[in-house]
Amino acid sequence: MFSRSFSKTFFSYFFSPYMPFSLYLAFIVSYAFLTVNELNWITFTERVCVLTILISPALLCKYQSLKHRKVVAYTWWVVGFIGLPLLHIILLENYIAYAATFFNTLLIFVCLLAIEAITLLNRYIKPMNLTRLKDKFTMDNILLAIVILFSLFWSLVFNSVDNPMENQPIHVIIDLKRNLLRFDELLAYFIQFLSFYLCGYFLYWVNHHVLINKVMARFGVFHYLWTACIFTLIASPLLSQIALFLPINSTQFTLLPSGNSDPFDSWNLRIAFIIMAISLPLILAFKWQHQVAEVLKLKQQNTEAELKWLQQQINPHFLFNTLNNLYSMVLTKKAQAPQCILQLSNLLRFVVYKGGNHRVSLKDEIAYLTDYIALQQIRVSHKATLTINIDQKLAENTQFKIAPLLLIVLIENAFKHGIDATDKPAWLSVDLSLEGNELSVKCHNSIDERLNNSQSKPQEKQIDGGLGLENLQRRLALDYTNKHQLNISAQPHEFLVTLTVELENNG
Predict the structure, then answer these.
(1) 140, CA 20 to 30 Å: which among 97, 270, 283, 424?
(2) Are 231 and 212 in contact (CB under 8 A)?
(3) Between the CA of residue 62 and those of 58, 81, 462, what are the distances in Å?
(4) pLDDT (tens digit per residue) in 101-125
């Protein structure tokens, strides 16, 4: 029980708007680990504390933006992720003590903005349901975008200093004026960095589309492992040699992980294996997520198709009953026949134009219900007493929505099995009420005792020849999961059905 509760809380947090805070914390630890020169517990802890203090105001602004809405939320976000980074740059340039405390920290704001952009994009793209746009956000395109961004970033940094390869390590400084004046050099740096990072991207691409999609999918894990090892051993020196051809390399320092001009250095091979090892679970995770999304989409389509099928079952059932009743009235030349035709036209108009909709207004559904009862009342007034209690405010309510042709099932069953099935005096009572967004329907009708004695199965099992209430129960289970309550009570002389449904706001 504890494990299930913990996992539910854990996953609900990581898929909530507060999830980026975990990413920020993980990034702080990673950034501190990579930027400490003499790594030990004391220096590492100090660096983590400094970075935490640095970005705490931005995280506070992020928290405030999540608590508020619209203009206030956007204002907090702009202050935290645009205003504070600009203030940080100004303080670095003008105060030596500040720069000494928060040295080599400009990159952390760039990465935080990247994390924020990804999380905001993921948050706002889902409700928009832009299928074509979401299809562009594949793992290939995301990693390619990261490669381009890193290439641009390091191009701006290298173009901001003189002889960057001869003055390693360099400080992460971006001189925008210098980059604009030397745009041709910036472009040259960008092409070279892009070529270098594309060598690593090539390892990922082959691992994804050849080794995993082809080898692992067809021959299994064992064949994938030895094929991946052979490919990495061959590709690593070749890609390293391609990177060495770039003019940016110098005799003292190169872009290779080894830092030297040896394409067969073990460090280059290690990084290649790391890329392959890291990309494997990421690729499998993306594939799993895609498969889950496809299954959920297929399940939703099946549910919608089943709901349509259930509604189509109900519509002909009602139509045939009503036409039979109208045919009988015309044959007997009753004066109420024209009124019945008018009532039927209103009902058919609703069925044709709104019966297939996902939701209709509560006003339209109750108007349909009222017309149906009025039509039936003309037909059975000689033997049945009808008591209909519908508040006028409820009948004019356009605030809430409901599934069409949902309530009519209860009334149809009451007429078919309580009034039409007997030649003795009968009665029907219908009460509709609304409290908040909860609609309550109570349908209470008489039953001929002779019919009960002739039935071998319970009344609730035979109430509509396998259609009426069974369809209603199925529709409620699909369309109002955990948002309804249906109670059926069969007595020797009466039958009672109560339905409570949570309605959606039309606002």
Answers:
(1) 270
(2) no
(3) 6, 8, 59
(4) 887 777 778 777 877 777 766 665 5
